[in-house]
Task: inverse folding
């Protein structure tokens, strides 16, 4: 309950810290979901020539000031270090093949629920 401006300020500071921690955790969860769904999509669309492509999809999260981010993509390791080629060629297509959008489709599935998850974190923090 907010009785004075000082208690309100203290409540808002506490809520800010809760939102920051919750947002970081949610970005971690969303990034992992995109990676896992991207791997599943890649298993279906990969032929023998890119059989190890799904295992090269990784993610990392980071925080810079007030900005939190998740980066998901193919790593340049395994199967002849062709991760960068897979990312450009498979996701976006090239002259000889249509795009697979393995990661794009995974992101499409996950991103719709992300704003709602962040909103729930904010509401819980101020309750």
Result:
């Amino acid at each position: 309950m907010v009785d004075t401006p000082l208690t309100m300020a203290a409540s808002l500071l506490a809520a800010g810290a809760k939102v920051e921690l919750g947002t970081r955790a949610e970005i971690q969860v969303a990034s992992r979901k995109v990676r896992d769904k991207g791997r599943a999509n890649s298993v279906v669309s990969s032929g023998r020539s890119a059989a190890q492509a799904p295992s090269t999809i990784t993610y990392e999260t980071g925080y810079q000031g007030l900005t939190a981010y998740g980066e998901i993509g193919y790593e340049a390791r395994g199967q002849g270090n062709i991760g960068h080629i897979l990312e450009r060629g498979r996701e976006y297509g090239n002259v000889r093949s249509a795009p697979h959008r393995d990661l794009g489709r995974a992101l499409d599935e996950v991103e719709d629920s992300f704003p709602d998850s962040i909103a729930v974190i904010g509401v819980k923090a101020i309750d």
Notes: The chain has four helices and two strands. Helices lie at 5-45, 83-92, 102-111, 114-126. Strands lie at 57-64, 67-74. The first strand starts at residue 57 and ends at 64.
